[in-house]
């Protein structure tokens, strides 16, 4: 498999992507461009997101469509490429998707501390 060839350099690439997203959180909106720029796979982008945003520290309402979109993108960042499919799947409006990105951006910019209710600073 190709993943075994990628693993030694993967953590360095993942950390570069994570640092880039810390510096420029709005780039989450351009996942395809981000993947091309870093020559990264969706899995590597997902690992970078996991390093900067711990979903358990986000205040989430499981009934809110915006939060459903947010959780979906945290779990499957590669799906940002096919936004229309995700919107249909989750029955989300363009505004709800925008709100999800804004919520994640705020969380990243504030280092996860300002948005989270409990200070879990493990990642």
The rounded Rg comes to 14 Å
Termini separation comes to 29 Å
Tally of extended strands?
0
Q: Oligomeric status of the shown chains?
A: single chain
Could you say how many structural domains there are in total?
Answer: 1
In DSSP terms (H or I, runs of 4 or more residues), the helix count works out at 6
Q: What's the helix-strand series? A: HHHHHH
Percent helix: 55-70%
Summarize the structure.
The protein contains six helices and no strands.
Description:
With 123 residues, the chain is mainly alpha-helical. It has one domain (2-109). It contains 6 helices and no strands. It has helices spanning 2-23, 31-38, 42-52, 65-75, 83-90, 94-109. α1 (2-23) crosses α3 (42-52) and α4 crosses α6 (94-109). It starts with a helix and ends in a 14-residue tail after the last helix.
What brief labels describe this structure?
123 residues; mainly alpha; 6 helices; 62% helix; 0% strand; globular
Provide the fold topology.
Elements: H1 2-23, H2 31-38, H3 42-52, H4 65-75, H5 83-90, H6 94-109
Helix pairs in contact: 1-3, 4-6
């Amino acid at each position: 498999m190709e993943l075994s060839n990628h693993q030694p350099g993967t953590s360095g690439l993942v950390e570069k992507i994570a640092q880039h997203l810390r510096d420029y959180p709005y780039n989450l909106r351009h996942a395809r461009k981000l993947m091309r720029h870093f020559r990264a796979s969706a899995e590597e982008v997902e690992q970078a997101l996991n390093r900067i945003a711990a979903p358990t520290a986000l205040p989430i309402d499981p009934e809110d469509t915006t939060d459903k979109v947010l959780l979906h993108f945290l779990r499957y960042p590669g799906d940002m490429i096919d936004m229309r499919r995700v919107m249909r799947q989750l029955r989300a409006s363009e505004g709800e998707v925008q709100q999800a990105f804004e919520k994640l951006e705020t969380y990243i910019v504030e280092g996860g501390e300002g948005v989270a209710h409990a200070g879990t600073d493990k990642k």
